[in-house]
Amino acid sequence: MAVDIQKLFNEELPAALVKHSDAAKQIGGKYQINVTGEGGGEWLIDLSDSGPKLSSGNPGNADVTISLSSEDFQKLHENPQANSMQLFFAGKLKVTGNQMLAMKLPKLFQLNAG
Prior knowledge:
Layout: H1 5-19, H2 21-27, E1 30-36, E2 41-46, E3 53-56, E4 64-69, H3 70-78, H4 80-89, E5 94-97, H5 99-102, H6 105-113
Parallel strand pairs: 1-4
Antiparallel strand pairs: 1-2, 2-3, 4-5
C-alpha cells in the first residue's frame, strides 16, 4: 500500500515525535529529507536537543541531507532496513553530510509505527 508522503511528514511523523520525544532525541541530529516527484516535498526533522520537531522546507542547517524520488521513498518506507542500503548502492538514495546519521533513519520510521 502506498504511503501518503505529505500526510506522513505533515501529520503522522510530527505526532510520533511528540509521543516518543525521548526516543527521538536518542536518534539525534538534524535530517533534511528531500523527496522529488509526485507528492514529494522538503522537510527538516530536528532530533537534536532543541527538538524533536519537524518542519516543512529546507533551512539549510541539517547534519545530513537525504534525497530520493517519491517512487523510491515508497520502497524505503515499505522496508527501511533492507531497502535503504539497496537504494543507496543503486544511487537512488543520495546522502550528503553525516553518513552515520543516515544509518539511523529506519529508527525514525519505527517511531511512527510504534
